[in-house]
User: What shape does this take?
Amino acid sequence: MLLLAIIAALPWTILPSSPGTKQSISSANSIVVASRAPINKIIAFRSAPPKRRYEVSAPIKRAIAQNLPKISGPKDMTLPLVVLDAGHGGHDPGAISPHGGQYEKEVTLAIARSIRTELLKTGRIRVALTRDSDKFLVLQDRYGIARKMKADLFISIHADSAENPEATGGTVYTLSEVASDREAQRMAARENKSDIINGINLGRADANVSSILIDLTQRETMNVSADFAKLLLRESRPNMRIRTNSHRFASFIVLKAPDMPSVLFETGYLSNEEDVEFLRSEAGQIKVARSVASAVQIHFARRLATK
Assistant: This one.
């Protein structure tokens, strides 16, 4: 009763559902996981969302000054849209490998492009990249772009470094305000600092968005994100190294869209010599891409089966 009283007192506006940029509250119903089907037998699917009774006014945190990126793939607007975010860029190189000086921003862009190629081969997925060149994007703009485009899935691609040069393999992160371990907390803190330039924090959350509203909207989104993370790890294991404790939780800013399933895929460590060789090679990038493409297809097939 106390929670209901708090929610009722909030200054929000509930409007009839209508097209536009306002963000929707999703149903809190749990997702039924269908049995796995072979990729070559997954039928064509559509991403038409379940009917929603209400929409709430929740502005995108930052105005997207630049033009929205191009969507590649089928013209059918009912097909699911995946937005791939190549981490870092421009004056922010990300991690720099001690084994040849490879920049994370270059590795992530190459992997994102490879994933796009594999997804487009299916003919059933629309794809956009937050950046398709060496440019800097503020963290809020990365997922803000995807939200404005009404993406069905957001995947941020990274290739970090670790304090231990023996650390190797991929890790998938989903959102949590409490990090699952100290390493996850350290990595989230470092990535989030990408928005702090010349002492000005560009990643400050919009004060107009109620924390309770975000919590309500994110509840189902976080569950869907966690389900996709497990699926992505399962599909990746036959193709690449995956860490033992491979699904982790951290408060990455790029995962904070309240109404869009999002994961951050650390594809490996540039501090590890074998990971560097794998991630910068075309063969390695294709293996990562095929893993992601397989997981994405199964994810949307399952979502369709539960509607």
